[in-house]
Amino acid sequence: MDAQKGTDDLSLPKATVQKIITEILQPSPGVTFARDARDLLIDCCVEFITLISSEANEIAEKEAKKTIGTEHIDKALRELGFPEYVQEVLTSAGEHKEALKTREKKVNKLDQCGLSEAELLKQQEELFKSANEKYNQGHA
User: pTM of this prediction?
Assistant: First the structure.
């Protein structure tokens, strides 16, 4: 994969790829997946991702878009000769989008503390005043 010389540090987590191999591919009993085969699979995946993302980037640039969207991935897959992947990719993208909607929103500390902004500012001022007094006492 000579095209990858500038991106030698790009990879996928080996544990994740191993999980995909063992759980999703479910090889036949007695058949193992050699480490060098796993590493080759990782290289192939990185190359495929690079190829698709580069093409999607070019498509987005031609459309004067600053963000690559699913429609650009769709077009890239089709233009590169992988139309059979489009439906699965779009289905996965839709499932991911739905999962994001239903995921609990993170509560930030400001909302969680139960104090108003004015009360928090007052507490902050008191802490600064106290810290300043302690500092001045130590240097008097």
Answer: 0.62
